[in-house]
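Here is an idea for our session: we take a single protein and study its fold together. To get us started, please write out a protein record for me. Once you have written the record down, we can walk along the chain together.
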Amino acid sequence: MTPGSFDELTRRTGKLLLAILALLCVAWASAMQAQDCCEEHTGASCVVVACSECVCDLDPSCCIDSWDLFCVATARDDCAETCQCDGVPTPTPTPGGDCCSPHAGPGCDESGCQACVCAEDPLCCSQPWDASCAHVTLGACETSCDCAVPTPSPTPELSDCCADRDGPGCADATCEACVCGVDPICCSEEWDGTCADEAAINCAAVCACPAPGDCCAPHEGVSCQEVRCKTCVCALDEFCCADVWDQVCVEIAVDGCPLECSCEPAGDCCEAHGGVGCDVLPCQDCVCGQDPVCCDEWDAQCVTVAALVCGADCPACVPNDCCEMREEPGCNQDGCEACVCNVDPFCCDELWDGGCLAIATGDCPEACGCRPSCPGDCDDDGEVTVNNLILCVNIALGNAPVNDCPAIDTNGDGEVTVDELIQAVNAALNGCPAE
């Protein structure tokens, strides 16, 4: 390297360090001048970080110049819930409620159960007793909480009466008696296909066997092809399993048995909607067993129950936690976990840190479904704001944990360096890089 090129490198490095120093000074000055979010002041930003972020997302000048009357107005009007400048405190839900079910207040009615659950998850005694708290009563606190797992109405199991078999008779005595009353050969010689058809058609009212015909459309035969639906309908009107499946039976299926028959399009189990139940029956059964209201209207609480309590029956509703740093090893997407841990076993032995997230994004994008993060995009909204940069600087200075903005730790080493801050500044100036 020639002396001239070395001098040029020194000059450029010095300018870069000055730029970073200026950014640090802006952040420091903003932090020093931050005051009450509900009062006008000369400094940028305000003391409540969440309020500051809300206001500055709507009016960036509030975090660059000064917190003027317009910023105060934004805090009072557009960010009222976050800033609470109207002087009216957020009402505290009444404590208590059934320990076995989600409810709006913290804690629950049984002190022993409450003590156990809140020892496992303290938020259950300071925030609403949600589905995750109710779930603890069935797991770690099963002995302290008298909460039985609800048993949903399952689809009736098909017995051997519904198929031809060697030998006479079948296992369901009630169904057998009906069929053999129609055709004695079924109980004296062999239970063949004819006997199975008679079980489905002639004895539809007492045999849990599918029969020809769409449950949601009238047809000449009795019963219909969905055992769960025909069982519900025929319990309300025996005519449908004894004479003919007419329009009245269809109306009963639609109005009287909507959960069992699904004649109307069911909504997504993982999204709130105004309809009853959802489009995956095992998921619907589990959620409605936990919260029967969900089978009247599938609201946001039902989606929460699907994700937190009924994950085994509602796998599509379980949030993918492979795309965020976690203090536990592994993640909840088997394919992603296998791919990442094949690259670095630490991720399944110790914890799922920034390095594991980098592997999920870089080495295993198809298995994990994690899109590359934009450097400094702390709230993952596709842009880097002034507030994001201030938070990133605070992380670099050691004043905030890396978990407050994983997107700034681009190499996943748990530290924020000058080059990572520069990436964030570039993203703020030029936009996030294309995926």
In short: The radius of gyration is 31 Å. The chain has five domains: 34-91, 95-149, 160-261, 266-318, 321-368.
